[in-house]
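Exercise 7.
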Amino acid sequence: MASPIREEVTVRLFAGGTDHNAALGATVNNGDRILAKVTCTNPATTVTTPGGWNSIASLRTTGGSVDNGSSEQWFYRDCDGTEDGASYNWVTSAAKDTIVAYIRYRAGTVHADAPGGTVANDQATADPPSHSFGFTDDVQVIGSWSQWDGTASGGSAPASYSGYSSGDTTSGNQVSEAVAFRDLTAASSENPGAFTTVESADFCVATLVVRGAPILDIPITVNADDNQDDSSTFSTGFTTGLLGFAFTVNQHLVLAWSDGVDVPPGSIIDVAYVTFVADDVGSFVAGSVLSDIFGVDEDDHVPPTTHAQWSTDHGLHTTATTVWDFTAQASGSLQTPSIVGIIQEIIDRAGWASGNRIGLHIDDGGTVSACQEVAYNEHATLASQILHIEFTPPSNVDLYPTADGTDTDVVDEGDATTDLYASIDDDPASPSYSDWNNNTDDAGQAFYQLTDMPADFDVAVSATITIRYRGAAYDGSGTVTLYARLYQSDESTVLSDEVQVAQVTADGSFANTSAVTLTGIVAGTKTTWDGARLRLRWART
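Solution. The predicted structure, written as tokens, is:
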């Protein structure tokens, strides 16, 4: 894992008007992710999201007159490489000074998850709030502020932050904004500290986190995982492996990674290769080595220990293969060509699970006289083979209640049974105590229909349910246990196991929001998941 790589920050200023055609930088590559920060005078100003952009957060001041305030809205876009210098019109609901700041991240360095963060309004100082990520990873944190009054240039970033960038408009109702950045390793939270500013006003402040793309470097650490076969004899326990022509026959490398490969199902493999350290302990022969790389097409590869097992595995090769023809060397590092297709084929297997083992065969491809020696795990001083993988995990989809199921024994805060889903706040950034459904039976259930999956949905890998709950003290005693389960639209075909969400004493107070991972997720298809129901079941004891 590594922090995402920020390529550039582009700031565009607009004096008044409702159309704000802001151009990206001249170069945008396929797979780049761009964040857009749109800052306006007047906290009531809203922004129409251009096509291809996704909203992250919206914040605004509320004190003073409408023109002595600001709004700050964040968006992101995943690029396909056709956006070089493209302009996007950020249409505002009123003619106001506007600043559009684009932050472009390099393809392959950013996690597929949408950026997240914590925001705050009406702050007396430009002090972005503390933010807990909900994971532990390498990240880049963005500290941000905005304010009315376009004369705020000349400030500085919080301590430990760099890349300070600011913008100020200069017309009648001016607006100012600034961002700064910090890379963190294996982090789970951050409190950026305060910016230094030259003007005082109500501030919008935000702390956003951009998660780094997963990178794995997996060495072979088990002696039985690096072996050799010459098409008749299986050999193990060597300090070096032979590839090419040696001892009158062609030699093949047999490799496995029993420590496991932590790539979730549904991931996209972006980069994959194997590195070796060359050695010469007597069998090295200079010249051209011809070889072919295959994967063993199994869900969870068991390393062979005999020639017969190797031969069986040889019949299970992946369709994808990589030709590796190179000049033998007596020392230094060797790296295979890309094996993305091979690893992707294994990861795409229906039975693949994160942490499973992978096996690779590097077969001699007709070498005439050369022989390459490479260090194995048993070598006393040289490093063993390393499988390098960079991947994009499956993206998350947020589903919200969009309709009620068949049950009518639950009521909302107005004691109505109609459109219960509409009474639940669907903005996770601002949960409301006043939006709730309730039931006074000792046991019961309710179904909520969820939004459909996006058009590019492939398979479901995991699911987490986030619920805010309480136990109402209608008689001052008892414990309420809440359970959750996913169903297809028929409300009978299950899509997950039932899990306990919470157990709360009936004390009348709201508990913390619970985020619970569901188990037994059915992969399915878009047809399977569209119109899915969340069933909440409760029981009082």
